[in-house]
């Protein structure tokens, strides 16, 4: 009788220890890759949400500027040049507001316009900064977005092109 057969005449069916170890190693590599993919996916989704919220804040502030009169926009004591907002404004009382967005507003003369319009137009540039962390790290990453809009003293309708 051969060594790998039992008394019934059938060959033994079993895995060797090397095969088991190799299958566990392959399974471990697959699990690490799976959880690494989950972690990277969550980080991308968080970044996309923060970018979207930054865009919403910039659009909201730009729409606010449209409601100001010319004298309010050009008055530095009335028109605030800094602002602060949160990822989740309703969470400020429960300390779950998320990322803090710091904004800067610059009102200046626009570039590349005819000299006749230079005193009657302003360029409003809003820059938003926020800080987030790489997952599992204490390294800060400062993110920023910027939006520019133009304001005319007499509105768009009173200008005549030549």
| Percent range of helical residues | 25-40%
Q: Quickly count the helices.
A: 2
What portion of residues belong to β-strands? 15-25%
Give unreliable regions as ranges.
none
Task: Please write the string of helix (H) and strand (E) elements.
Answer: HHEEEE
Mean pLDDT: 82
Task: Determine the structural class based on helices, strands and strand pairing.
Answer: alpha+beta
**Assembly annotation:** single chain
Q: Give the termini distance in whole angstroms.
A: 108 Å
- Give the overall shape, derived from the CA principal axes: rod-shaped
Strand order, sheet with most strands? 1-2-3-4
How many E-type strands? Answer: 4
* Total separate domains: 1
Rg value: 31 Å
Largest sheet report:
4 strands, antiparallel
Report on this model:
This protein has helices at 17-67, 70-74, and strands spanning 82-86, 100-108, 121-133, 140-152. The chain has one domain. It is rod-shaped and about 105 Å long. The termini are far apart. A hairpin with a 6-residue loop joins strand 3 (121-133) and strand 4. The chain is built from two helices and four strands; from the N terminus they run ααββββ. The longest helix is centred in the N-terminal third of the chain and has 51 residues, at 17-67. It has a four-stranded antiparallel beta sheet. The protein has 162 residues and is of the alpha+beta class. The model has no long low-confidence stretch (mean pLDDT 82).
């Amino acid at each position: 009788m051969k060594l790998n057969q039992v008394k019934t005449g059938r060959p033994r069916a079993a895995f060797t220890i090397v095969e088991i170890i190799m299958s566990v190693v392959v399974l471990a590599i697959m699990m690490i890759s799976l959880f690494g993919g989950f972690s990277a996916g969550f980080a991308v989704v968080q970044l996309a949400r923060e970018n979207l919220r930054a865009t919403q804040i910039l659009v909201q502030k730009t729409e606010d500027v449209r409601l100001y009169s010319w004298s309010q926009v050009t008055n530095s004591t009335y028109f605030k040049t800094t602002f602060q907002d949160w990822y989740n404004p309703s969470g400020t009382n429960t300390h779950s507001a998320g990322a803090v967005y710091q904004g800067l507003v610059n009102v200046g003369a626009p570039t590349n316009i005819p000299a006749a319009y230079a005193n009657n137009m302003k360029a409003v540039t809003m820059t938003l900064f926020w800080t987030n962390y790489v997952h599992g790290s204490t390294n800060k990453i400062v993110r920023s977005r910027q939006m520019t809009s133009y304001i005319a003293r007499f509105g768009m309708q009173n200008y005549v092109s030549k």
